[in-house]
Amino acid sequence: MTLVAGEYEFTCDECDGDGNLQYIRITTEDDEPELVWDKCDDCRGEGRLLVDEEEAAEKIRWGQTPTRTPAAT
How many CB atoms lie within 10 A of CB 50? Predict the structure, then answer.
């Protein structure tokens, strides 16, 4: 997918680009913890985030590097 002007692509920092998260679920029936894999909610399982210029500036300020930037015009 081609980026449109103003979009930046970053690796999802919640799932580290994997698209999946593992978490502990405790069922109320027996209170036994269970490890469960699920799709990352932040990136919807894609492992990457497309953001606008404002959000990109914030991510860059916190040390993240975009994997793609808009094409220069």
Answer: 16
